[in-house]
Each structure stands twice: as C-alpha cells, then as structure tokens.
Predict the structure.
Amino acid sequence: MKIDTRHKIKLASIAYRIVSLVRRSFGKSDDVIIKRGGILWDIDLHEGIDFSIFLLGGFEPRTLKLYKKLLGGRDGEIVIDIGAN
C-alpha cells in the first residue's frame, strides 16, 4: 500500500500532536536530547526531520553511515549537520 505525500504529512501531524500532548502532560518540552543508533541527538520534535529521528531512529540512512564511519565509533565526538532543512 502506497501513501501519497499529502496523507503522510497529515499522519505525521497527528502523530506529532499525540506525542507532544503526552510529553507536555509529563512536563516535558519538544526539545529533546536522545540516543538513537549510538548517536546522541539534540532535536526539536516540532521539526519534521527531528520528529522522524525521534520516532524512527534516523533520517537519511546513508548520512548516518557516514557519521559512524567518520567517527570510527569513538565516544564524545560531535557532528554538526547544517543542511537545507
């Protein structure tokens, strides 16, 4: 089953509202520091890509592989991903 972009956006919007509401009910904000796939992320759940990382563990798998390759599994390394989004 293939979902068109308009419906994907609508579903993501509903999912964000639910997650945000639950987080707020526990006194938590949309600004989150989480670990996904061995990478520590500083994200804003209001942003679509950040929300995808929160729910799915990543965005752009090739980029994540490159981060891991460049960092060589060393703890404490920092990557600043500055892109069009």
